[in-house]
Design goal:
The structure holds 2 protein chains of 2 kinds. By secondary structure, chain A is an alpha+beta fold. Chain A folds into 3 domains: about 20-90, 2-Layer Sandwich (Dna Ligase, domain 1); about 95-220, 2-Layer Sandwich (D-amino Acid Aminotransferase, Chain A, domain 1), CATH 3.30.470; about 230-375, Succinyl-CoA synthetase domains (Rossmann fold, 3-Layer(aba) Sandwich), CATH 3.40.50. Chain A has 13 helices and 17 strands. Chain A has helices at about 5-15, 30-35, 65-75, 125-130, 150-155, 165-180, 220, 230-240, 260-270, 285-300, 315-330, 345-355, 365-379; strands at about 20-25, 40-45, 60-65, 80, 85, 90, 95-105, 110-120, 135-140, 185-195, 200-205, 205-210, 245, 250-255, 275-280, 305-310, 335-345. In chain A, strands 7, 8, 9, 10, 11 and 12 form a 6-stranded antiparallel β-sheet that branches. A 4-stranded antiparallel β-sheet of chain A has the order 1-6-2-3, with helices on one face. The longest helix of chain A has 20 residues, at about 165-180. Chain B is of the alpha/beta class. Chain B folds into 2 domains: about 10-120, Rossmann fold, CATH 3.40.50; about 140-290, Succinyl-CoA synthetase domains (Rossmann fold, 3-Layer(aba) Sandwich). Chain B has a 7-stranded mixed β-sheet with strand order 3-4-2-1-5-6-7, sandwiched between helices. Chain B has a 6-stranded mixed β-sheet with strand order 9-8-11-10-12-13, sandwiched between helices. In chain B, helix 3 (about 75-85) packs parallel to helix 4. The radius of gyration of chain B is 18 Å and the shape is globular. The two termini of chain B are about 25 Å apart. Chains A and B meet through helix 9 of A and helix 4 and helix 5 of B.
Chain lengths: ~375, ~290
């Protein structure tokens, strides 16, 4: 799960990390009402999940109320990558002496949290990592003990040398780790962390992602969830025990198991088709799941054929077949369905499908080829 | 013999009184696994599927000599269940549970190292040495005894591959599902080494997917020291960036962890990569690339 900048910096503030104070607005009228006419410089920032908003024109530095309202009008409604800007954060402008990068991430290889700092702040950190990796300092956090003070200090020393700045930076790093740990974060970034002309260290931007598996124990984080239309569909699916990701092709897929679902999409592509989605119904033969899955698929008007690929393991193919037919009887499909069953009790399952009047197939390759053929004749 | 488990393994089930725990205990017993006990706190004295239930893993280990544990405990408590098994001296812990927070798994994997415990999973189908021992939820009937070792990040895709292998006459020495989470126990390199040293294994199938760089590490490891033929398959060539494809670990983040990179790494290491599951058996038989 992701949150917006204003939410991330809100959490920073709660943990004692200095941030630029901001006002959240969702319309030009709201800006008009909330921003004082004091002639001050401000930064108007689009609130979107994707990176690269600066390059897309989603951040503007302005002086005076009139210019602020004008910039807000330009940014609200703007499309950045796939997101329409619905909210903007208007913050005080600070005089920047230098920009830094601070980040934390869960690392698969060391099985620990990695703290990263760099003097190359304000830019895309992946570019820094690719072009000059030596400019990023990394340290692994002991998962049992947590970030030790000396580690925070050593990282701060890579950015600052004056005692007062070192104290400020170490404090920020320690607080950021506590926030990261307490919220089950998977990625937290301050980019840039800014040294102001007044010798204060301030977080000017914030990004946080969280572990979906831990949301059950993070009610405060879950309450911050705001979703786009595409995500709303994915979350609805999640609520029904389905894992669904919409893509842009014409062949709708219903598969049991995530790995097999990906392999099915790949197979469609290999034989010249385009998958319309990733959909894992998990390991049950419950007819309701198939009905829910079909319901999700046919809302996507690009779908020309449905491909159901089931490998019966613990779940028996005859149970799955009965579930499928119950589902097919309940929803009248206007598009062709290709059913592939294999594994435990496949012969019985295939017979049930045939008795219903469908021609099932037994291999994934055959299923993919047939679905592609049908999707082309229909369109 | 195979690796990690065999006919001499003594297996206990943590969470045996739950629906999944009881169901799969019956399946494992029917396959021939020696299930010596189950664990469910406060339920000692009960019997599930003819298996005696103990309050703690320590009791089960002391009274039955168990060396392997299979965990079906719900996600919020599964990390602790792994620790309990480890501190009770269980040598191999297999955690089936899906949805354990990654912060829990970072702590757990660090702590069990101190006890020398081996972990498979979490969020995995477990492992099987055909005709000897099943420790997990795999459908025993699709496996066939043989000399191909299988290591996979997936569940049903593994069954698909194994089914095709068995059908084309290639039996398996041991088949392991390492799980779909970003932080897991034993992974490709450790298991490749075990198969390399297992006299019964003659070839190895590695089934990877998008996310992380374990496949790239495996490719390097193979070119540096695995002499047995390896064939790879990677799922997720059509997966978009930034979307979690069902498994918590299957996500392409900012251009890394793509199927393309992984396939390239294997090809460079001289490991043939099947374009679809049905091709795996052909590649093993032809021994292409060796």
């Amino acid at each position: 799960m992701k949150i917006f900048e204003y939410q991330a910096t809100g959490l920073f503030k709660k943990y004692g990390i200095p941030v630029t104070e901001g006002i959240l607005c969702s319309s030009a009228g709201e800006v008009e009402a909330k921003i004082p006419d004091d002639g001050k410089s401000r930064v108007v920032k689009a609130q979107v999940y994707s990176g690269g908003r600066g390059k897309a024109g989603g951040v503007k530095v302005v002086t005076g109320k009139e210019a602020t309202v004008e910039a807000a009008g330009q940014i609200l409604g703007m499309k950045i990558k796939d997101f329409v800007v619905e909210k903007i954060l208007i913050t005080e402008a600070v005089t920047i002496e230098k920009e830094y990068y601070v980040g934390m991430v869960n690392d698969r290889n060391t099985r620990s949290v990695i703290l990263m700092v760099s003097t190359e702040g304000g830019v895309d950190i992946e570019e820094v990592a690719a072009l000059s990796p030596s400019k990023i300092f990394r340290t692994a956090v002991d998962p049992v003990v947590g970030l030790m003070d000396w580690q925070a200090r050593s990282a701060a020393l890579k950015l600052f040398s004056e005692p007062d700045l070192l104290r400020q930076a170490s404090g920020i790093l320690s607080a950021l780790y506590r926030l990261f740990r307490d919220t089950d974060s998977t990625l937290t970034e301050i980019n840039p962390l800014v040294l102001t002309s007044g010798k204060k260290i301030v977080a000017v931007d914030g990004k946080m992602n969280f572990d979906d598996n831990a949301l059950y124990r993070q009610p405060g984080i879950l309450a911050m969830r705001e979703t786009t239309d595409t995500e709303a569909l994915e979350i609805e699916a999640e609520g029904k025990g389905l894992s669904y990701i919409k893509l842009n092709g014409t062949i709708g897929c219903i598969v049991n198991g995530a790995g097999l679902a990906m392999a099915t999409m790949d197979m469609i592509k290999l034989y010249g088709g385009e998958p319309a989605n990733f959909l894992d119904i998990g390991g049950s033969s419950n007819p309701q799941k198939v009905i829910d899955a079909m319901d999700l698929l046919i809302r996507d008007k690009n779908v020309k054929t449905v491909l159901i690929n089931i490998f019966g393991g613990i779940t028996r193919c005859d149970d799955v077949a009965l579930g499928l037919i119950a589902a097919l009887k309940k929803i009248q499909l206007a598009i062709p369905v290709v059913v592939r069953l294999s594994g435990t009790n496949a012969a019985e399952g295939l017979q049930i499908i045939r008795d219903y009047g469908l021609q099932p197939v037994t291999s994934m390759r055959e299923a993919a080829k047939k679905a592609i053929e049908l999707s082309k004749t229909k369109s | 013999m195979g690796i990690l488990i065999n006919k001499n393994s003594k297996v206990i089930v943590q969470g045996i009184t739950g629906r999944d725990g009881a169901f799969h205990t019956a399946k494992m017993k029917a396959y021939g696994t020696n299930i010596t006990g189950g664990v469910s706190p406060g339920k000692a004295g009960l019997s599930v599927e003819g298996v005696a239930v103990f309050n703690t893993v320590r009791d089960a280990v002391e009274l039955t000599g168990a060396d392997t544990s299979v965990i079906f405990v719900p996600a919020p408590f599964a990390g602790d269940a792994i620790l309990e098994a480890s501190y009770a001296g269980v040598e191999l812990v297999v955690c089936i549970t899906e949805g354990i927070p990654v912060h829990d798994m970072m702590k757990v994997t660090d702590l069990i190292k101190r006890n020398g415990t081996m972990l498979i999973g979490a969020n995995c189908p477990g492992l099987i040495t055909p005709d000897e021992c099943l420790a997990g939820i795999m459908p025993g009937n699709i496996f066939k005894k043989g000399s191909t070792g299988v290591i996979s990040r997936s569940g049903t895709l593994t069954y698909e591959v194994v089914y095709l292998l068995s059908e084309s006459g290639l039996g398996q020495s041991t088949c392991i599902g390492v799980g779909g989470d970003p932080v897991s126990g034993l992974y490709f390199t450790e298991l490749l080494e075990m198969f390399e040293n297992d006299p019964e294994t003659e070839s190895i199938v590695l089934i990877g997917e998008i996310g992380g760089d374990a496949e790239e590490q495996a490719a390097q490891f193979i070119s540096a020291g695995i002499t047995k033929p390896v064939v790879a398959f990677i799922a997720g060539q059509t997966a978009p960036q930034g979307k979690r494809m069902g498994h918590a670990g299957a996500i392409i983040s900012s251009g890394t962890g793509t199927a393309e990179e992984k396939i390239k790494a294997f090809i460079e290491a001289g490991v043939p990569v099947a374009r679809e599951p049905a091709e795996i058996a052909d590649l093993i038989k032809s021994g292409s690339g060796f």
